[in-house]
Design goal:
It is a single chain. The protein is an alpha+beta fold. The chain has a single domain, classed as Nucleoside Triphosphate Pyrophosphohydrolase (Alpha-Beta Complex). It has helices at 46-58, 114-118, 128-138; strands at 6-15, 18-24, 33-34, 37-39, 61-76, 82-97, 106-113. Strands 1, 2, 3, 4, 5, 6 and 7 form a 7-stranded mixed β-sheet that branches. It is globular.
Amino acid sequence: MTASPRLAALAVVVSDGRILLVRRRNEPDAGLWGFPGGHVDFGETALEAAARELREETGVIARPLHYLTNVDIIVRDGAGAITFHFLLAAVLCEYVSGEPAAADDVSDAGWWDVADILVGRVQCSEHVDVVVELAVDAYK
């Protein structure tokens, strides 16, 4: 068996100075806030996957605009063995409609003020703050 990284997409939705985040139910990062997202299906672009995962996890509809960045997530156990390896494509999305409601593999969903995320008032997964800054800069 050959291990390989898994490709996933993140939906980064900005609306009225707020960012849509979800609380992860599963590892890695169970209990932490992050962007809605998940695996990219075979034959699906990461932009399409971001919009699909957003809808599945929150019920929110958004239009994917463009890639913001890629994030490498490599998690190791105490012995140094890799337990998770993801390449996450962060996709900036334009909010269209819907109120966030947790579904699928998230336990909560909601809008957060950008400032609260950037000063650490929200317990987020690693790299969320960096991606939030990129998203805010993209709207300037």
